[in-house]
C-alpha cells in the first residue's frame, strides 16, 4: 500500500496500492456495509434514497428542498454508521431521522413522528408539540391568554 486516505464524507477509505510483481499502481475504495432489517425480516442494504423518499412524504407542502433532504439523509447515514453495527432494524433508521428532521421542519417532524412513535391519540400530538415549545421556550396559546 502506497497511500491511504479517508474520503471527504468519512464513509469510505481510498487506498493507493502498488503491485509487488509488476509495480503497477491502482486505487481501491473500501466501505463498510450497512444492512437494514425490514419488518418482514428481509434484509437489504441501507439506502439514502429510501430515507429521502420516506421523509419527502412528510415534507409535502413544506418549504423543504431536495438539497435539504439530501443533507438530512447524509446526516442519518453518518449517525447510524457511527453506531458501529452492520445491521439495523428499519425502525431504528426511522428513529434516527427524527432529530435531523425536527431541525429541518417541525411540521414534517410531527407528521413523521406520528408514524414512527406510533401516536395513538391527540394527547400524543399535544405532548410532542409541548416538547417542541419547551425547546423553543414558548408557551402554549392557551397559557398566553391567561
Task: Give a verbal description of the structure.
The protein contains six helices and six strands, in the order E-E-E-E-E-H-H-E-H-H-H-H. It is α+β, with helices and mostly antiparallel strands and 146 residues long. It has one domain (18-139). The N and C termini lie far apart (71 Å).
Summary keywords:
transcription, metal-binding, nucleotide-binding, single chain, alpha+beta, about 50% helix, ATP binding, three-stranded mixed beta sheet
Summarize the topology.
Elements: E1 3-6, E2 12-18, E3 25-31, E4 35-37, E5 43-45, H1 48-58, H2 66-82, E6 87-89, H3 90-104, H4 106-116, H5 122-136, H6 141-144
Outline of this structure?
The protein has helices at residues 48-58, 66-82, 90-104, 106-116, 122-136, 141-144, and strands at residues 3-6, 12-18, 25-31, 35-37, 43-45, 87-89. By secondary structure, the protein is an alpha+beta fold.
Amino acid at each position: 500500500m502506497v497511500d491511504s486516505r479517508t474520503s471527504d464524507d468519512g464513509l469510505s477509505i481510498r487506498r493507493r496500492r502498488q503491485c509487488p510483481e509488476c509495480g503497477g499502481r491502482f486505487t481501491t475504495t473500501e466501505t463498510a456495509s450497512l444492512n437494514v432489517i425490514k419488518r418482514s425480516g428481509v434484509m437489504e442494504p441501507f439506502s439514502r434514497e429510501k430515507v429521502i423518499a420516506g421523509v419527502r412524504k412528510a415534507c409535502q407542502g413544506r418549504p423543504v428542498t431536495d438539497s435539504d433532504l439530501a443533507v438530512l439523509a447524509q446526516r442519518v447515514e453518518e449517525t447510524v454508521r457511527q453506531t458501529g453495527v452492520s445491521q439495523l432494524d428499519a425502525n431504528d433508521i426511522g428513529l434516527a431521522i427524527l432529530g435531523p428532521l425536527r431541525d429541518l421542519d417541525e411540521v414534517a417532524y410531527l407528521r413523521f413522528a406520528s408514524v414512527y412513535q406510533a401516536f395513538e391519540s391527540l394527547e400524543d400530538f399535544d405532548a410532542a408539540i409541548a416538547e417542541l415549545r419547551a425547546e423553543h421556550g414558548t408557551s402554549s396559546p392557551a397559557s398566553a391568554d391567561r
